[in-house]
Sequence to fold (1255 residues):
Amino acid sequence: MTAAAPATSAGEPLRVETLPTLPGLGALYARGAAASGRIAAGRAMPGLPVIGQGRAAEGDGEARPLTLPDVAHRVTGVPTVDLAHHLHDYQRLLHEPVTDVLPAGYLHVLAFPLATAVMVRGDFPLPLLGMVHLANAVELRGPVVVGDVLEVRAWAENLRPHKRGVQVDLVAEVRRQAEPGGAPVWRGVSTYLAKGFHLPWTGEPDLPAAATGGDGDERAPAGTWTPPLPTGRWALGPGTGRAYGAVSGDRNPIHLSALSAKAFGFPRAIAHGMYTAARALADVGHARGDAYRWTVEFASPVLLPGTIDVAVTPDGDGTGFAYVGWNGRRHRQHFRGAVTPL
Amino acid sequence: MATRKPSDGSPRGSSRTSSRAASPSAPAGVRDAVIVGGNRIPFSRAGKKYADASNQEMFTAALEGLVARFGLQGERIGEVVGGAVLKHSRDFNLIRESVLGSSLSPQTPAFDLQQACATGLEAAITVANKIRLGQIESGIAGGTDTISDAPVAVSEGLRRALLDASHAKTLQARLKAFAKVRPADLKPLSPATDEPRTGLSMGEHQAITTARWGISRSAQDEVALASHQHLAAAWDAGFFDDLVTPFRGLTRDDNLRADTSLEKLASLKPVFGRGLAEPAEPTMTAGNSTPLTDGASTVLLASADWAAERDLPVLARLVDAETAAVDFVHGHDGLLMAPVHAVPRLLARTGLDLGDFDFYEIHEAFASTVLTTLAAWEDADYCKAELGLDTPLGSIDRDRLNVNGSSLAAGHPFAATGGRILATAAKLVAAKAAETGKPARALISVCAAGGLGATAVVESV
Amino acid sequence: MTDSYTKAVNSGFTKTLATKLGLPRPAVLRRFRAGDPLTVGPVLVVSDEASTGDADALARVLLGWGLDVRRQPTDDTRWGAVLLVLTEAERPTDVSAAVLAVGSVLRRLATNGRVVTVSRAAAEGDAPALAAVRNGVDGFLRSLAKELRAGATGNGIVLTDDAAVDAPSVLSTLRFFLSARSAYVDGQLLPVGPADADLPADWDRPLAGQVAVVTGAARGIGAAIAKTLARDGATVVCVDVPAAGEGLARTANAVGGTALQLDVTSDDAGRRILEHARTRHGGLDVVVHNAGILRDKLLANMKPAQWDAVIAVNLEAQLRINDQLLGDGSGDDGVDGLRIVSLASTSGIAGNKGQTNYGFSKAGVIGHTRATAPLAASRGGTANAVAPGFIETEMTSSIPFATREVARRLNSLQQGGQPVDVAEAIAFLASPAAAGVNGQVLRVCGQNLVGR
Fold:
């Protein structure tokens, strides 16, 4: 069961570190918080050695380039046979039909701890806490069903500047173990922003299109954008973040309660970006088929509780669906994306 | 896709009424299903006269009035079919239980069905089809709905805990099940009338359709005004004397505002479509939208022989019916536009044109529902692209539309509306035929949640 | 609506108490139940000498009805009824022995017993002595009725136009007076003429095959009428205003009839009733004008609407419906053999303070009934009225307690009547065998002390 040698999207080879099982997210957060503290301390006190070859740019010492660990985490033999119950909880929460087929969003949930494990590595140059999820792009090349045994890999790549800091892609891949060496059946790229870091300028910043109106937590001026006719409305209760946190394992405090969110500068708890994207994916329904590309760009956080208008509409050329979510009263975009059958 | 009969080249619509199509006849091996009459209770705005009346009580009352009107005490009816849109779990056999509580023979079978706001009409179509096939000789169709006594569900967390506890064998296990209940789980869940797939209320959906079709506020208010005026006139003329039986002291539909005016309607604040970018001033108000209503209705259908053997009157026959659905989930079509699709298919099968009707009963879920329906039938592009018609379906003579008022004035207890409309249409065509000595015909159109629609043709006998 | 006093003085400790205190003890009236015996005991048939033949003829009829009939008083009998036949008496002295014979058994008249006189009406051309004895029966019976106790009643049949004592209508009237159906009819003399009629095949279903319309059938007396007519075998069309439809449906479903929501004051009410009866039930035999309203006000305070409404519903509607049902006599637009029974009231006979409008309307009913009688008779029908006294209904239950107590005791039976008592009288008048009763007002009042 030798898989193709791992490499980044740009072809740079990666070392493989095989973990015995998918890590638990709770422990990762504890480590992530500690690492974040260390990194923050490193930024505040430039004299302190910082693990990894990059360093924070805000110190008044000389700027050293930030670099990503050239390592891919891998877990093989991940069973899904016992996941049916958890899968169905996810499907109910996200308004997916309850079946034994794993939606792309569920595979994201499955792979997320491994990607997080990369981000809490000692040699990962950016702090886990406070990173902003800017965008996500997923390709599902075929159905993954309960019972499939999977191999999951995750690594970080493509560290690049952003006008508010640096952004990095966390790439995760899922393969069916029955098809070793084949192309991944699922591949997800999560783009995060770490604010307050700088990279040497290498040209135009690679900004997501939708982020031009606001890069995650920046308020876009209201009324400058005219929303389409909605096709749906989501009434998101105060427990939305806790519910998705429970099913995804992503219990980032900004999603859990107003109190814990305030600690990170949000007036109230905010919805998980991937929750909103997965709701939109579910909304597309049967038309997406077994294989599809699913993207999202996050423009502004969705405060909880809250009601947002969404439009999930077929593309003009009929090849897929575009979706956008916004605040119906203030006409401010929260997210937009597309679902394109492959 | 739509296969209309070959056109003779003349424009469709009201101009064709002079050359009336021959009466559609039943297919070979199929006999007529006739409408003997109907009975409903007055419709009441939610939380008023029927605040403590259950669906079963209301439907039983409507049944009892029908039994009394037609002397059906102890009669074994072929089947009673009806339903409620908002239904308690204890009402799993709502219609059968109502039959058992009525003066009908307890040997009368019954079943529940539900097609949202089209429940009543779909029940009548079902009964008529059984009669047409000779499976039954008589049937009662109807529906009932209450907002006042709607079921309130418990949260998913509490529900799971209750189920777990009821399955638990030991006290410890039971306590463990309840220990999982969180304070938030104790909050009851009110029944939602929002579309499950979109989260938009019906009003918001129609606001989108209204915006897309550019229907004006004043046009909607005019439809609402006409509805109230027509319904009030019909009540005053005694039209409902043999269609309605009072209930709980209510003798008339209490949503009816005989004294409303365009000025009063114009003064109301918009309630739907306020979040839309266009139009800047939303158009849908409480005045040109139906209120939440409680009520029940029934219609007695039969074979002609059955009616004749019992010296029962025959108002009309239910000629044919067509249901349709639209893809509204991603905005391809408006939620309430399904009848727009059903009618041309129904006309094609019956060999009729849109102008071949003396009466048009278009359910007024909202004033703009009626207007978008009519606009779509007149729109060449829509008719071509969505209905597959080479020319627009046509326009109707507005003087024949909802002549005795409709849901805006009477109210709309979802499942009860079909029965109200069908009985009204049957009585209208019977009276028209008696007056003119010529057959009279009505087209019925009922839109429904879920992008559904039911339509039917009723003709005098 | 319940007369708790009557209940109290007839049961348990309160009965003993009431007896000791000498309180009036109104009897619990025996009312009709199918299968019960016609009378509560043997029937004594008494007559003056000249009327022996008629008495024998009636005695044979009673035997035919399965009754224990005696021609001589005996000391050890609890009499169920006494029949006094005076048809052929010619002078006042002729009846003395027979009348005193009746008096000799009155103490042994059973609870809910009956005294029925059969006599002939004084007519023009009668000899003075003949007229005297015939009219004397009237005063005798009315007085006797007031002497009877314990739910017993006295009523008289007055033969007119040389009617034979065994004419069908006489027999059906006799049976009505003897039976529990006339529980609250007391002190009444009913003129009965000769008329062709068939006696019912089944005395428990005298209205079998008949189609009857009852107006105001949603509740109260109207509902009781519908139920009684249906019990007697009629198919009942229940009519009431649309606003009363819920109660109307209840009545119609209880009697297996049909409900017709109709305002009797509408111009075409009669035609619509007739059309409904004909198309749905194949014809019309009986119309009961029961619909009526009250708008009590002293005349000084009477508003036009209050006067007009009462006249429109209680009187004009009956007139218009009768016109439409009887037609103009020229063609087939009317109904043959129609029995019309209208609701009058003792208020229309004796008057009542605050009821000038109601009293007018009910006296008007009596007037039009007498005038309609020959019109109906010309098509083989009859028109009669029933005048209820104090009847225990929702309406009378709203009268203040003291007034109500006085009103309900002011009659020979010392109690109010039940709606069914009115209904029984109507069912009797509506029956085919009552063809010889026409243009009459039958009071159902327990021999109310007001008026005649």
Q: What stands out?
A: Chain B touches chain C through 24 residues (CB under 8 Å).
